[in-house]
Amino acid sequence: MPQEIEVWYIIPAIRRELAKSMVELGLAQKQIADKMGITEAAVSQYISNKRAKEVAFSNAVLDEIKSSTKKIIYDEKLLVPEMVRLTKLTGVKQVMCDIHKKQDVNLPDGCDVCFGEDMTKIK
Question: If pLDDT is split at 50, 70 and 90, which confidence band does 50 have?
């Protein structure tokens, strides 16, 4: 199911990139864990590529994640809205679709179930 792919692959990969962006901006692992509502151990695994390593995003998506990082650092209450926004990006949906196609050999030709009508057009 696409929702499972989102939970098991996409959200962790977005968290990984958020954590890496926060490190680049000088935050300590404890600060990152607090801002993201996850453990320091999870942050460590994200920044060392031990978690969510199967997913690679386009540069455009990475730019959007960096933009979200700055917003979340400024106001951690924006974490959930930014995560929702990022999961709706076209480039993120395409990654989800590619994983779905690899995992489900019974998909019909032309399947676009991973793409909803309400998406931001970032490739």
Answer: confident
